[in-house]
Amino acid sequence: MKILTCPMNGPRNIDEFQSFGPVRAEPDPDRTADADWSRHLFRAENRKGIVVEWWRHVPSNYFFLAERDLVTNEVLRTFDASERWAHP
Amino acid sequence: MMAEYSALSLLANALKGNKDWKPAWRKPDPKASYDVIIIGGGGHGLSTAYYLAKEHGITNVAVLEKGWLGSGNVGRNTTAVRSNYLLPANTRFYEHSMKLWENLSHDLNYNVMFSQRGCLNLAHTPAQFDDYARRGNAMRHLGVDAELMTTAQIKRLIPALDVSDSARFPVVGGLMQRRAGTARHDAVAWGYARGADRRGVDIIENCEVTGFLRDGDRITGVTTSRGDIRAKKVAVSVAGSTGRVMRLAGIETMPIESHVLQAFVTESLKPFIDTVVTFGMGHFYLSQSDKGGLVYGGDIDGYNSYAQRGNLPVVDEVMSEMLALFPGLARVRMLRSWGGVCDMSMDGSPIITTGPLPGMYLNCGWCYGGFKATPASGWCFAWTIAKDEPHDLNASFTLDRFHRGLVIDDKGQGATPRLH
Amino acid sequence: MAPSSVFPFMAGGAAHGTKLPVGAVTLHDLTATPRFGLKGGGSAAWLTAHGVSLPAINRIGSHHGMRILRLGNEDILLLAEGAGDALADLKAAWTKDTGPKAYSSWREEGWAWMRLSGRHVPQAMERLCALDLRAGAFGVDAIAQTRVGHIEAVTFRSQEGFDVLFDVTASAYFARATAAAAMDCIDLPIDMEGHI
């Protein structure tokens, strides 16, 4: 994992990027029970396998999504965040 | 008990051609059942077994290790030992560990080469220096040694350090804990293993836990690559793989993420630095091993990972930080680098607790500071297993503290594991 | 104080005393040259409504002598070298506008603007930046948002060589990094008096 392909800027050295962690559910704080909310804040699935996570291309401050294997560090694909909500 | 290792035994064995040394631990086959099973043959699992036997007389114990003994983080860390924390729960716990370290070679009859060479945190701004004064006072308040050092004192202590005004981040002072230092990490694993083995504990290597045996909610044993093993109590001590092992017990989420931490060693040099030094403007720490290599490391890799190897940007960053402090090391060759998987917890502090299921005990969340905790972690975990309740020293390290608003966030970063 | 003395080499500032390389690689400080950045939802719409035709992302367009740099869907930077009046007019219109108009990204204060020129610029850029910036791969209307001299930067071609925009607080560092790259890639001495 030396090069990551930014959907906006193309293939770049990995040191141009910053990870923002796995994509998580976005519960509505007004309609979530306290126990579920603290679970949302303090618990992580932390699966050994493929996750979808947020990355930021730092020089352009562009946030996007990547599918990555946490064991091999292989990035399967990167895509713009709009794709996630366009094709659920 | 007569010491197994002594000057006399060394001489006697030397005269007999070193053919009669007993292996430091046996290679037993697993029995059908034990009083206690400890999952994980790392530093913490082995010290837990040792203190269970020594302090609580519980010797019908098995330590199950997936690979070989000490193949995980106990053999991958940068060996620093210190108790310079801010918050009382951490300070008391790590100071207890420090006291165990100070007598460990004697206690184990095994030279863990604990060297109290001091640990110096460098301050690069007046505000940081003030913050160190606060932390030093907090430490001294709890009976831990701490002293502030001026730049001139630091220059005398570490001549190679760039303390000039033209340094990238000029040094304005530092916080020193003289009783801190380093230990030989493999010896710690081997010493605890032998100490536990000689008291009757079965250390079973190449034995991977594949699931839990249950009676309703209660954990009654484990399934392994070497067959089913029953136990009254099952203790999980697998930092780095906590999420995976807990999932085998049906616990789907933990207050932990797995991240990779790298470490580095250079070629051997003549005596260069006789303390542990940490950088205050980035994440970097360095000491010199007894062989002469500089042992150093930096921050975690910056993204969740189960790969036991590191990435290049952190290599680049760590080298830059080293040169910011020690410009004279620019031509020194790095020999090796490696990575280990850390349990990064939500508040940067560990978990040593009963549960979360009946018959289960949990020790995890050591972030990248687990090595120095090895004695106290095992000591407290053994107490918790033996008495079914935590000792005062680990009473705060619960699993439910996050939900109860009782986090122990020494760094003040909030619930983002990669930032601790 | 004259505008040209405000950024970034002002007396007493972080970059004070840093000299810029001159010779086979020359560095020009254009930081005081007018520019205007808009960012956030509505940036593109506001500019389009004011007659600016926007290029694609990471491409450069032009409008009344200004260069229009599209750094993101809603992140646009206008550079006005010799078109200060046109830029001032647009900026005044934006300031007066009480409707939706996105946000000023404050590029005039936050970013240094340096121009590399001289016959060894291509070789120096090879050492400063990992991207392929040769003419065949990187045209006159292209923008690279990347790292130059190990710092986050925006770079694009100018008539003389390359322009680089980056965090103004890294000015002295950038000058030294450029000088070091220049020394590394040529045998001929350049004027390096006091530069490193």
Keywords:
heterotrimer, B: 420 residues, alpha/beta, FAD/NAD(P)-binding domain, D-Amino Acid Oxidase, Chain A, domain 2, eight-stranded mixed sheet, 18 strands, C: 196 residues, alpha+beta, five-stranded antiparallel sheet, 5 helices, globular, disordered N terminus
Assess the beta-strand content of chain A as a share of residues: 35-45%
User: pLDDT below 50 for ≥5 consecutive residues: which ranges of chain C?
Assistant: 1-6
The count of helical stretches of chain C stands at: 5
Q: What does the main sheet of chain A amount to?
A: 4 strands, antiparallel
The whole-number mean of residue pLDDT values of chain A reads: 91
Helix percentage of chain C: 10-25%
Provide the CATH architecture of chain A: 2-Layer Sandwich
CATH class (first level) name of the largest domain in chain C: Alpha Beta
Q: Which pair has the most extensive contact?
A: A-B, 26 and 26 residues
Distance between the termini of chain C: 28 Å
Give a count of the beta strands of chain C, DSSP E runs of length 2 or more.
10
Give a count of the beta strands of chain A, DSSP E runs of length 2 or more: 6
Structurally, how many domains make up the residues of chain C? Answer: 2
Domains of chain A (count): 1
Just give the CATH class of chain A: Alpha Beta
Taken in chain order, the helices and strands of chain A follow as: EEEHEEEH
Describe the overall structure.
The complex is a heterotrimer of chains A (88), B (420) and C (196). With 88 residues, chain A is α+β, with helices and mostly antiparallel strands. Chain A has a single domain (3-25, 36-83), classed as Folate-binding fold (2-Layer Sandwich), CATH 3.30.2270. Chain A has two helices and six strands, in the order βββαβββα. Chain A has helices at residues 34-42, 81-86; strands spanning 3-6, 10-13, 17-22, 50-57, 62-69, 75-79. In chain A, the strands form two sheets. Chain A has a four-stranded antiparallel β-sheet with strand order 3-4-5-6. In chain A, β4 (50-57) and β5 (62-69) form a beta hairpin. Chain A is globular. With 420 residues, chain B is of the alpha/beta class. Chain B has two domains: 31-83 and 86-109 and 185-255 and 347-419, FAD/NAD(P)-binding domain, CATH 3.50.50.60; 119-181 and 257-345, D-Amino Acid Oxidase, subunit A, domain 2 (D-Amino Acid Oxidase, Chain A, domain 2, 2-Layer Sandwich). Helix content of chain B is 28%, strand content 26%. In chain B, strands 1, 2, 8, 9, 10, 11, 17 and 18 form an eight-stranded mixed β-sheet that branches. In chain B, a hairpin with a 2-residue loop joins β9 and β10. In chain B, α2 (43-56) packs parallel to α7, α2 (43-56) packs across α10 (370-387) and α3 crosses α10. Chain B is globular, with a radius of gyration of 22 Å. The termini of chain B are far apart. Chain C folds into two domains: 5-30 and 110-183, Gyrase A, domain 2, CATH 3.30.1360.120; 35-107. Chain C has five helices and ten strands; from the N terminus they run ββαβββαβαβαβββα. Chain C has helices spanning 43-49, 84-96, 107-110, 121-128, 171-185; strands spanning 26-29, 35-39, 60-63, 66-72, 75-79, 103-104, 111-117, 143-148, 151-157, 162-167. In chain C, the strands form two sheets. Chain C has a five-stranded antiparallel β-sheet with strand order 1-7-10-9-8. Chain C has a five-stranded antiparallel β-sheet with strand order 3-4-5-2-6, covered by helices on one side. In chain C, β8 and β9 form a beta hairpin. The longest helix of chain C is centred in the last third of the chain and has 15 residues, at 171-185. Classes of the chains: A alpha+beta (88), B alpha/beta (420), C alpha+beta (196). Chains in contact: A-B, A-C.
